[in-house]
């Protein structure tokens, strides 16, 4: 269906149009020099990212999904859960047998997130342990300690929708139990907690630059930030076949170790980095515009029988999510907005732990389940015109007439 006001597509179309010359010149410069793989554009992007978040190092990778997975690998997260689940899927053993045969680490995260936050744990062979979120849609820190066992190796907080989790509480728990912290900051580049940026609290902070994200690129992209030189070195090696021999990494600072290990290939494309470097210049302004749009929604939707998000200091606006009340009402709302030519998004209708065959349905997460029944995302990209935001507000007010 073609929408007059779409959920995201116009964001990158309009950004590209507004900055056409600069983007084409960055792209052409790479082509002319044949600078396509791990060249200085990637290094420059890594410097931009590290400076922005306030960490010593940043490592460009292929996606937010890989950022999480490689961070877990670099921190030594391991186990046989992925192998056992493959045997379950092949019908060789039952899930009860798999549970008895499991050896490895557990990581604590949430179900109220994109699947990649959980997938990285399973792909390392470890078991995900899911805790509920609070009404703010963030990991409820009170539920973390009861979920810790002797297998627990790390906490993976997800800074959802541009809001940072309660990091004081999470850092305290991690210190007390000697656990790593891997932050999923895919939706939170630029959000802060008590003046410190999302991604800079834990051992590693993971970002996504896929098209729909705050710093949306032109395709896929991801990044990891860290203050640990050891972790940075390991990540450089893990993303590139355990090989430092590329210009983007500082070869003299980080020579390839003599002993080689098996690794992966997950590099931020050089052309993508060049385009992201252009967008990064405008990033702070784009965040300001997102906040203006959120303020327009908050003002314009006041008094209606839907629940509006609450924003605190330091939050950035990845998406503007309203709670409609129940599933039936949400269906009617979506249909009404479709008829108006306005695309709103309904995701997480089935929370991750309820998806069949992922073997996570033993977790009881009432807040997560209730959010999945009535959350609706409104278009919030910075390239929206004021008149479009007004039109969306007008349509919603008409729905409630
Ligand atoms: C919370 C969260 N974590 C991880 C990811 C994975 O990022 P990517 O799509 O770049 O792999 C996403 C985005 O899709 C996300 O929203």
Helical percent range? Answer: 40-55%
Provide the list of bound ligands, each named once. pyridoxal-5'-phosphate
Distance between the termini: 26 Å
Corresponding CATH architecture of the largest domain: 3-Layer(aba) Sandwich
* Class from helix and strand fractions: alpha/beta
Provide the CATH topology of the largest domain.
Answer: Aspartate Aminotransferase, domain 2
With helices defined by DSSP (H or I, 4 residues minimum), what is the helix count? 15
H/E element order: HHHEHHHEHEHEHEEEEEHHHEHHEH
| Radius of gyration, taken over Cα atoms and rounded to an integer in Å | 22 Å
Tell how many strands the DSSP assignment holds: 11
Overall morphology: globular
| Major sheet details | 7 strands, mixed
Describe this structure in words.
By secondary structure, this protein is of the alpha/beta class. It has helices at 9-18, 20-33, 40-53, 64-74, 81-89, 95-101, 116-123, 144-147, 167-177, 229-238, 270-281, 283-300, 327-339, 366-374, 386-399, and strands at residues 57-61, 106-110, 127-131, 152-155, 180-184, 192-193, 196-197, 204-208, 222-226, 320-323, 375-378. Helix 4 runs parallel beside helix 7 (116-123). The longest helix has 18 residues, at 283-300. It starts with 8 loop residues before the first helix and ends with a helix. The mean pLDDT is 96.
């Amino acid at each position: 269906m073609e929408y007059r006001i779409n959920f995201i597509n116009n964001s990158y179309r309009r950004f590209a149009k507004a900055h056409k010359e600069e983007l084409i010149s960055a792209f052409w410069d790479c082509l002319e020099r044949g600078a396509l793989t791990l060249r200085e554009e990637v290094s420059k992007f890594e410097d931009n990212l590290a400076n922005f978040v306030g960490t010593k190092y940043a490592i460009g990778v292929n996606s937010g999904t890989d950022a999480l997975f490689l961070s877990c690998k670099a921190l030594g997260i391991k186990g046989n859960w992925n192998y056992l689940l493959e045997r379950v899927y092949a019908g060789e053993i039952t899930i009860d047998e798999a549970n008895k045969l499991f050896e490895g680490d557990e990581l604590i995260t949430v179900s109220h997130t994109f699947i990649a936050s959980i997938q990285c744990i399973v792909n390392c062979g470890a078991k995900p342990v899911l805790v509920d979120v609070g009404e703010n849609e963030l990991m409820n820190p009170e539920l973390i300690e009861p979920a810790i066992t002797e297998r627990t190796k790390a906490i993976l907080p997800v800074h959802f929708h541009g809001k940072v989790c309660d990091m004081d509480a999470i850092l305290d728990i991690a210190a007390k139990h000697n656990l790593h912290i891997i932050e999923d900051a895919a939706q939170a580049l630029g959000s802060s907690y008590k003046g410190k940026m999302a991604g800079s609290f834990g051992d590693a902070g993971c970002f996504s630059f896929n098209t729909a994200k705050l710093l949306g690129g032109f395709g896929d992209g991801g990044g990891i930030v860290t203050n640990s030189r050891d972790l940075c070195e390991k990540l450089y090696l893990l993303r590139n076949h355990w090989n430092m021999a590329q210009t983007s990494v500082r070869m003299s600072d980080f020579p390839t170790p003599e002993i080689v290990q098996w690794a992966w290939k997950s590099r931020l494309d050089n052309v993508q980095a060049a385009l992201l470097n252009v967008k990064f210049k405008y990033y702070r302004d784009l965040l300001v515009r997102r906040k203006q749009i959120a303020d327009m929604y908050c003002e314009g939707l006041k008094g209606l029988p839907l629940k509006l998000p609450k924003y605190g200091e330091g939050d950035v606006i990845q998406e503007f999510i309203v709670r409609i009340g129940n599933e039936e009402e949400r269906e009617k709302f979506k249909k009404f907005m479709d008829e108006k030519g306005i695309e709103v998004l309904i995701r997480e209708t089935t929370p991750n732990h309820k998806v069949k065959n992922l073997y996570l349905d033993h977790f009881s997460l009432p807040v997560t389940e209730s959010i999945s029944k009535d959350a609706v995302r409104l278009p919030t990209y910075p390239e929206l015109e004021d008149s479009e935001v007004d039109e969306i507000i007008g349509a919603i007010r008409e729905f409630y007439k």
